[in-house]
């Protein structure tokens, strides 16, 4: 194993409920009487892309909205909530990063969220996790096509100078797993609270805690 690629901010810290709350606050701020409860939000998370979710929901209700503007509002609210909340790294993440660095492996964060979201999350997780832990950080502006397209992973591998068959991706949603496996990567599903029900059949391994030795064994068994 030469590199570990964390596929979203959700693989580092579980922020899904903060995201859902921010959507609902954004709807209220934009004069919409929408409310996404946890049950329906769980179903929406099977597809990536907050702006796409807003547009699809508007279409399902027969409404026309500015999905991009609402999503910008949601992002601003999420960022504010993130700085005011207490978030912590997910189980095994810090230890996995430390083990990887001690053995000279490369690390990447391969998300399609904004750089602002990434920066605020990492700031909230300091000193346990820092931006300098990652050799490459991919954000929404890095690529043209979001997941489940493989572009984000292809871009990350090029920047790392690594081949897919020696790297492991960690993902918390089905679209992310699709993107990773399409790029030729072994993929570990590491679902959060709101994605635990997803069908991770395409992942090589499903875990609720990261373990460096398990990741390494996954490459050795390929």
TrEMBL record:
Pfam families (UniProt xref): HAD_2 (PF13419)
GO molecular function per UniProt: hydrolase activity
Keyword line: Hydrolase
Stored InterPro entries: CbbY-like, HAD-like_sf, HAD-SF_hydro_IA, HAD_2, HAD_sf, PGP-like_dom2
Tree of life domain: Bacteria
Residues annotated as transmembrane: none
Entry-linked PANTHER family: CBBY-LIKE PROTEIN, XYLULOSE-1,5-BISPHOSPHATE (XUBP) PHOSPHATASE
NCBIfam families: HAD-SF-IA-v3
Descriptive protein name: HAD-IA family hydrolase
Source species of the chain: Drouetiella hepatica Uher 2000/2452
Organism phylogeny: Bacteria, Bacillati, Cyanobacteriota, Cyanophyceae, Oculatellales
